[in-house]
UniProtKB/TrEMBL annotation:
<protein>
    <submittedName>
        <fullName>Helix-turn-helix transcriptional regulator</fullName>
    </submittedName>
</protein>
<feature type="domain" description="HTH araC/xylS-type">
    <location>
        <begin position="26"/>
        <end position="124"/>
    </location>
</feature>
<dbReference type="GO" id="GO:0003700">
    <property type="term" value="F:DNA-binding transcription factor activity"/>
</dbReference>
<dbReference type="InterPro" id="IPR050204">
    <property type="entry name" value="AraC_XylS_family_regulators"/>
</dbReference>
<dbReference type="InterPro" id="IPR009057">
    <property type="entry name" value="Homeodomain-like_sf"/>
</dbReference>
<dbReference type="Pfam" id="PF12833">
    <property type="entry name" value="HTH_18"/>
</dbReference>
<dbReference type="InterPro" id="IPR018062">
    <property type="entry name" value="HTH_AraC-typ_CS"/>
</dbReference>
<keyword id="KW-0238">DNA-binding</keyword>
<keyword id="KW-0805">Transcription regulation</keyword>
<dbReference type="GO" id="GO:0043565">
    <property type="term" value="F:sequence-specific DNA binding"/>
</dbReference>
<keyword id="KW-0804">Transcription</keyword>
<dbReference type="InterPro" id="IPR018060">
    <property type="entry name" value="HTH_AraC"/>
</dbReference>
Amino acid sequence: MATDTPCRGAPSAMPGLNAGQAAAVRRAQAFMEQNLGQPIDVVQIAAAACVSRFHLARLFRSATGLSPTGWLRQRRIDQARHWLREGSQPVGRIASELAFFDQSHFTRSFRAATGCSPRRYALHAASPY
């Protein structure tokens, strides 16, 4: 009978973490993926991973190089890039769908991550050149 909880001391796919620690990081990542459009905080993420928020921060940084909220922000920006390339949703709707406070907050976050505004990114992505 297989379980999702690995044995203590078992090898991990995440260097520097044992299997149990890697499982906690994966639980946190899965929770964040499932809640990209919801306003969630590190306490909720840690609860989903079954560790304290302080332990989660250490594990997450060791596994990904980012804080949990930094990783969540990056995933939201990645999803926004995808939608902007598709051209299927206006910027304001993308901001709302990805739990940014408002379009301005989304635009600032997107620009900080990509170096350009969402509108410029969408126009460039739609350009055949």
